[in-house]
């Protein structure tokens, strides 16, 4: 014990530091239900000792202490648990988003104004069956027109709904990018505040640290991040492998907007040059027009084994796809651009189904053949020998599904003979494609159903059309994707679309549930360390109150002893 009045320093330090500990405990209790609050813990250390003898004289060192001081108010966290939680939270965001978008697409496919989309396919088939029994009956012909229009309307409506959902996802992408940039700016500002507060080595910026850690946790749900804190309390963050929060600024994410679709692509403006375009995600396919413009080709390649299935922003980009899905994406060559892009892939599947039905029926009513001219040129022409005609008997017959402003045939003279040459689809002319949005029921047939090619050229009813339609409708020529080993017919194709969505949804849900459980378990471990326990804080409060009372009693005793000594002197 210190000699003389020095003993009062011991008691005084006990009173003061017990009071500080009580204040800290009270603060913990007040924030027991505050989101993001991290428990504060008081740590004590000895004050300087007074040496009473010369340690070089061969005697034991004699020292007297002056009490204790608060060496630190610790911000209790575990950086390893933080890192694990943020990674698993990012995975949860990725799979939860994929599951949510897949479920929504399933809802679009299952219901259309209270009626399943599948009904339009079944009703069209029933209309063709009735038509086959009496092809020249105007009632049956009119039923074909009505059900074909209904089928196209529902196809276009579902396709349009998927486009609208893509636009909705696109807005979510923009919102998330804006939020990421906002979080980056806030973290940068908090870094400066923390450095300023803690630069003196006296105070810890508890509130600012809590706010910053909460922002980093949120950021980890959007994208893959790496956060590292230096000795000054400054946190630097990498996002998808690139510097995001740096010493002197936050590098914002930019957005490239595609003409036509309006789709956004996140990129890094600070490292993008005229020679090199730097997308934020190097493992997600770019819109084809953008890829061609910047000379940057990349496909979606995401897997747990690659440790890149992280972040809801990436999941939104994958779900939306890079553009609108069309039938040509179902080819083996192009399928990789829509694989796992749930909205874009479903659009491609619907477009593929509609196209195959349109092409099959048109080829029955207006069959084609080939003719090789004397100069060696091969033409696709109307098979005039085997085609049916309408009630007027004129050639060429009218196709059921017509391209807007683009006739099926052009009459030409070849080798001195008249042919109806088929106007084929060309990449240079989008209006030449048999695709949704570009095709309608032939307006000439809709205006006069008797023009439907239902007669042989001798004027009799062509009952052979029934067999051709049945054969085309039941033929199992369609596949859900190039990897599909079991083909199906038109009606079975819809079931495969739903089954494919359901399978993917189940996988995403299972992954989402697993990641949610994992993230929750890690968060529980974090809370055991940084969370506030009311029972523990009440125990600390009793302990520090007892220490305060003991220090007070110590001062009273020293005061009485000092008074006695003074009186004796």
Shape: elongated
Strand order of the largest sheet: 5-6-7
Structural class, by secondary structure, is alpha+beta
Number of helices: 12
Range of strand content: 5-15%
Characterize the biggest β-sheet: 3 strands, antiparallel
Q: What is the first-to-last residue Cα distance?
A: 21 Å
Alpha carbon gyration radius:
38 Å
Series of secondary-structure elements, N-terminal to C-terminal: HEEEEHHHHEEEEEHHHEEEEEEHHHH
What this model shows, in words?
Helices cover 50% and strands 12% of the residues. The protein is elongated, with a radius of gyration of 38 Å. It has 569 residues and is an alpha+beta fold. It has a three-stranded antiparallel sheet.
Structure described in brief:
This protein has 569 residues and is an alpha+beta fold.
Keywords, separated by commas or semicolons:
single chain, 569 residues, alpha+beta, 3-stranded antiparallel β-sheet, two-stranded antiparallel sheet, 12 helices, 15 strands, 50% helix, elongated
Secondary-structure map:
Blueprint (H helix, E strand, L loop, with lengths): L6 H24 L9 E7 L2 E3 L11 E3 L2 E8 L3 H32 L6 H17 L4 H61 L7 H17 L2 E5 L5 E5 L2 E4 L8 E4 L6 E4 L20 H7 L17 H9 L21 H24 L2 E5 L5 E5 L18 E3 L5 E6 L2 E6 L16 E3 L1 H5 L16 H11 L15 H41 L3 H35 L1
Antiparallel strand pairs: 1-4, 2-3, 5-6, 6-7, 8-9, 10-11, 12-15, 13-14
